[in-house]
Amino acid sequence: MASLPVQALPASKRLDEPPPAHTRIGPVILSVANISLDFGGVRAISDVSFDVREHEVLAIIGPNGAGKSSMLNVINGVYHAQQGRIRFKDREFAAMQPHRAAAMGIARTFQNLALFKGMSVLDNIMTGRNMKMRTGILAQALRVGPAEREEMRHREVVEHIIDFLEIQAYRKTPVGRLAYGLQKRVDLGRALALEPEVLLLDEPMAGMNVEEKQDMCRFILDVNEQYGTTIVLIEHDMGVVMDISDRIVVLDYGRKIGDGTPGEVRGNRAVIDAYLGATH
Amino acid sequence: MGALREEDMTSALDTFPRLLLRNAAERGNHPAVREKDLGIWQAWTWAEAADEVRALACGLAAQGFRRGMHLAIIGDNRPRLYWAMAAAQALGGVPVPMYQDAPAAEFTFVLNDAEIAYAIVEDQEQVDKLLEAKATVSSLAYIYYDDPRGLRNYEGLVSIDALQALGRDYDRAHPGFYDTEIAAGDTDDVCVMLYTSGTTGKPKGVCHSHRAFIVAGGGAAEFDGLTDRDSMLSYLPMAWVGDHLFSYVQSLITGFTINCPESADTVLTDMREIGPTYYFAPPRIFENLLTQVTIRMEDASRVKQWLYAACMRVARRCGAEILERRPVPLHDRVLYALGDVAIYGPLRNMLGMSRLRVAYTAGAAIGPDLFRFYRSIGINLKQLYGLTETCAYGCLQPNGGVRLETVGPPAPNVELKIADNGEVLLRGAMLLKEYYKQPDATKESIDADGWFHTGDAGLIDAGGHVKIIDRAKDVGKLATGAIFAPNYLENKLKFFPHVKEAVAFGNGRDFVCAFINIDIGSVGNWAERRGLPYSGYGDLAAKPEVYDLVRQCVEQVNADLAVEPGLADSQVRRFLILHKDLDPDDDELTRTRKVRRRFIAEKYAVLVEALYAGRNVQHIDTMVKFEDGRSGMVSADLRIEDAKVLPAQSMKAA
């Protein structure tokens, strides 16, 4: 047998699917400017501004009561700030509305899960597709052609998410019967069903054991890498935050006291003071 | 190469690539393989499968893969990984499937031993491990992956899709290349290299020829009348000889369909959906299934529990006899028919075994009670005996000739005899060609007359059926001179759903002691129903209530042993419950979950000593490895308890 020419090992760039259009961090996609939020006489956030760049993972950290969750709620319109403006994809708002945030591509998960406990994993994630359903309730009930085709399309998206989050074994299981860590994953899955551009995660790893945290980190990074989704997350575990974030915003008593890369934040005097007490 | 010879070769169905071509030609539209993806079963016909293999083989050739080279294959059961095996064989190469759950450090030995340059793997997890191993494996140069997830930013990897695209170009540019390569294959070429799990020492690469596996697979398929209408669930590690024989070899020989589950967690659901007609599982899987049934029955309502108990009594009395078409009184037949409607049928359905014609178990001895349970609910579960070195082919139980304590007569084309020291010897075409690069080991295990020394102790009964007692080297004697077969005792203990693993000690001692691992699922459920709080495995295992529960199991085994001739001295006098699960990651079990007896005896020497010294409490520090590769210390004070021992029954009573 004649010897065959050995073809050089092709670079993965050429043979594989082309690299994603987003080559990591892009321009500013979301910015909050001079946000102040009061509840009666209590000031939760005062004069906080920061930018979120496309495709980055931004962590918001701070001690309890620093205003982190309030900040997420302002961004997706659950709370309306008394002062300041939010700019998202070249449109400026004094106050966001939740449905508009969802329609524009901002999804979120909750600190205390808000899932339908009696419904299956599949159905819970399917509810995340609600915004994208076009056919009417009657057409869906009668399963007429267009409604059925639409359902199949949505189901395919949902199946990709189930595959992505590795929860195939629980597809038909009622969410209430799942372990806490898995419920968190379903919550993430429902947010992903919206195919968001920006994903707000409120303590995605709270109450998890080490292994579950590792899994969650991997899912978050995979979402960011594979779909290019911009991620804003609140997290208390500093190890996790330093590991997976591109940038960190630090809040304390409603004020921003730090903003930068993990390395910069780690060396920031004000941040150390806030976490360890001023007289450490 | 002469035209005549080429014609001879292609007409002879004596290599796997030729069998693949035959299947594509004769049953091109019949499903060859199914895989559940995105919640839907996707199927590939034999014609499509043959085409995929062709593209893959040509792609490998374009990348420089040559006759005689080794191709590492690592991952869960995926159609493309099975095709990779066929692709390597088509080029005259040798696939080397490896255990997908082994850590990188364990890969290194096999990768180096087999001088692996090319590897086809499933996903990022396996790629990461290969890249980690690469530092110490200089030969490794080409890595191909199936699932692109998470691999976007990796350099120097190629997807199977890309490899196949390359192959299709290559095929067009080199017409006739692929067919010539298949024609050049010989039935005595090595077709696969399987590494033994290595209960002792380093793993050895077992080289098998096409001929050996075709004799083994063909013999077994004919024995059970398998056809291309059959259907098999492929979920056991591809590196295990059992999966290779049942999924890859027999599917190519008979043309039946193999089904790849969606993930390791969904096997039960997938099995229920597919309803395979042919099934193979090691005893521990049958054990797990029965444990689940038992747990769920304990949670059922009173009425259902009563019905289940009543029906199972009938099944125990006559179920196996009905399956074997032996005479059974009419009223038992009627009761069994009722039970079939009420319990056995739904139970088989729940287990995904409604369509099952033939099920086999092997890999370890199966507890007699466990075995009888499945047969009594109408599942044709049979035992076979074989080793990695004999293509998992040695003895088969024939339909209608199944006996609980034997593994059946020697299979077609297999010669078997018992050596003077009680060791089982096998001879036939299914024997290994050699251990890779270990001529001494080969010479040691195959003697001058061609007999393979299995290392198992056994005997042949009056009916010509073979009974395997234990590993020859494990069988020992108590200080009283009575025989001590630890596996036999452990299996008896493990039949209880509460007991997951057991390790018996007694060789050269006055009496027998045992370590017990509780089954956290079963005992946990039991504890919850009693309102017994516990924080985790170690805590639960130390509860006095759990000790009582386990003592009942041990004493029941003792009662059985007391009436078995020669085994009365093997009753378990003292036992303890270990504070952690025995784990392959800690080297306590093999990857196929066999107990590493000697290693455990050394690691837990303090505990063994405490058992025999008569102490009631013993402190121990144990090193454990976590899944991420880190390790830590676990310490505990273990309680040791006595179990009641019965006097040996007289021969009359036995």
Indicate the structural class of chain B: alpha/beta
Range of strand content of chain B: 15-25%
* Overall residue-averaged pLDDT value of chain B: 90
Specify the number of helices of chain A.
Answer: 11
User: What is the name of the CATH superfamily of the largest domain in chain B?
Assistant: ANL, N-terminal domain
Helical region count of chain B?
22
Structural Rg of chain B: 26 Å
Largest interface: A-B, 30 and 37 residues
Inertia-based shape of chain A: globular
Topology:
The complex is a heterodimer of chains A (280) and B (654).
Chain A: H1 12-15, E1 28-39, E2 42-53, E3 57-61, H2 68-75, E4 83-88, E5 91-93, H3 98-104, E6 106-109, H4 121-127, H5 137-142, H6 145-164, H7 180-192, E7 198-202, H8 210-227, E8 230-234, H9 238-244, E9 247-252, E10 255-260, H10 262-266, H11 269-276
Chain B: H1 3-11, H2 16-26, E1 31-37, E2 40-45, H3 46-62, E3 70-74, H4 79-90, E4 94-98, H5 104-113, E5 118-121, H6 124-134, E6 142-145, E7 158-159, H7 160-173, H8 177-183, E8 190-195, E9 205-209, H9 210-223, E10 231-233, H10 241-254, E11 257-260, H11 267-274, E12 278-280, H12 283-299, H13 302-323, H14 330-350, E13 358-361, H15 368-376, E14 381-385, E15 395-396, E16 415-418, E17 423-427, E18 434-435, H16 439-445, E19 452-460, E20 466-471, E21 476-477, E22 483-484, H17 486-494, E23 499-505, E24 512-518, H18 520-529, H19 537-541, H20 544-563, E25 572-577, H21 597-603, H22 605-613, E26 617-625, E27 631-642
Parallel strand pairs in B: 1-11, 3-4, 3-5, 5-6, 6-7, 10-11, 12-13, 13-14, 24-25
Antiparallel strand pairs in B: 1-2, 8-9, 9-18, 14-15, 16-17, 17-19, 19-20, 21-22, 23-24, 25-27, 26-27
